[in-house]
Description:
The strands form three sheets. Strands 3, 5, 6, 7, 8, 15 and 16 form a seven-stranded mixed β-sheet that branches. The protein is an alpha/beta fold. The protein folds into two domains: 2-153 and 295-343, Medium-chain alcohol dehydrogenases, catalytic domain (Quinone Oxidoreductase, Chain A, domain 1, Alpha-Beta Complex), CATH 3.90.180; 156-290, Rossmann fold (3-Layer(aba) Sandwich), CATH 3.40.50.720. Helix 5 crosses helix 6 and helix 8 (225-234) runs parallel beside helix 9 (250-259). The chain contains eleven helices and 16 strands. The protein has helices at 39-46, 96-99, 109-112, 145-148, 156-163, 182-194, 206-214, 225-234, 250-259, 297-308, 324-333; strands at residues 2-6, 14-17, 28-37, 58-59, 63-71, 83-86, 128-131, 137-139, 174-178, 198-203, 219-222, 240-245, 260-268, 288-290, 316-320, 339-343. 27% of the residues lie in helices and 24% in strands. It binds nicotinamide-adenine-dinucleotide and zinc ion (2 copies).
Amino acid sequence: MKALQYRTIGSAPEVVEIATPEPGPGQVRLKVTAAGVCHSDAFVMSLPEEAYIYGLPLTLGHEGAGIVDKLGDGVTGVELGASMAVYGPWGCGHCYTCAQGKENYCQRALELGITPPGLGAPGAMAEYMIVNNARHLVPLGELDPVENVSLTDAGLTPYHAIKESLGKLTPGSTAVAIGIGGLGHVGIQILRAITSATVVALDISEDKLQLARDVGAHHAFLSNDEAVEQVRTLTGGRGATAVFDFVGAQPTMDLGAKMIAMEGDQVLVGVGNGTLPVGLLDRPYESSVRAPYWGYRSELFEVLDLARVGAISVETEAFSLDDAPRAYEKLEAGTLRGRAVIVP
Ligand code: NAD
Ligand code: ZN
Ligand code: ZN
């Protein structure tokens, strides 16, 4: 089968021919219908050899969807032919956090060598993929896989980040989203769907600010120091109730710290290399900083249900597997609107 693999540190991913995998006991094989292109892939491929921990060759794709194609021994509860989304942050399924559906924070994944597809295990950018347990499949039903595959990460990650601040996002509150790419443009829609906050979008690109307005941001400003004044003016001086930083670079972290309100949440989602001083005198009183990773299994059901009622949707640009390297080029160049999706 065809697959998109990262094979050599520092090189672009390549389309290669590899053996079609067979599902082992307890595993499920999917015929892939769609795979999303995340900026985290670019981050992984930018790492120098000494920091790279994902194994080579790596079949990319941690946002995946497919049709159940073959069941390994002992698998029950899934039907051949069903259209499924893959919950990516695989855990052990048995520890206390996994019991709560929080497999993204599994206590034993590291020790057991369990890694997400596309970030260790072979990912979804291939004609077929293996899912290690039927538990990691969430029915898509009538949802179109190409339009919705990215909800497994570009939807789930902002959803989790926002849900943990939900109690603060009351009427009259202000939420700022920084970086209106794959995650950010879905994040804005989630903020509009599940909170009554005024939503402010920041980006360095005018095109992305237009995308932000198109998907429901009340305000969209260039991401620079002027935005701090703009947010202060909008909030009567109080500042932002929550800042969701989908970039995580030093300039955006600094910006977030300057505009956060007392008791506000600064939520660092992007894998930039920024850091923040945290201490009583460094920040507005009782403001908090969180750095969440992906989301809970139960939350993926909730995100897909938000899509089913039409509250959220992903702007997608489709590419064939052969054309997948070009999707990564466009991602790096910042010229995608929304999410690139590979359709094998
Ligand atoms: P993307 O490339 O689709 O979007 C990034 C956006 O940020 C673009 O619109 C770009 O114009 C904007 N941007 C870049 N620099 C900026 C700046 N200084 N100020 C304001 N905007 C700026 O990326 P994505 O796939 O949405 O991923 C966003 C980030 O989230 C990446 O760092 C990715 O690795 C990370 N991520 C984290 C998790 C997690 O679990 N924490 C999950 C998925 C992705
Ligand atoms: Zn991702
Ligand atoms: Zn676990």
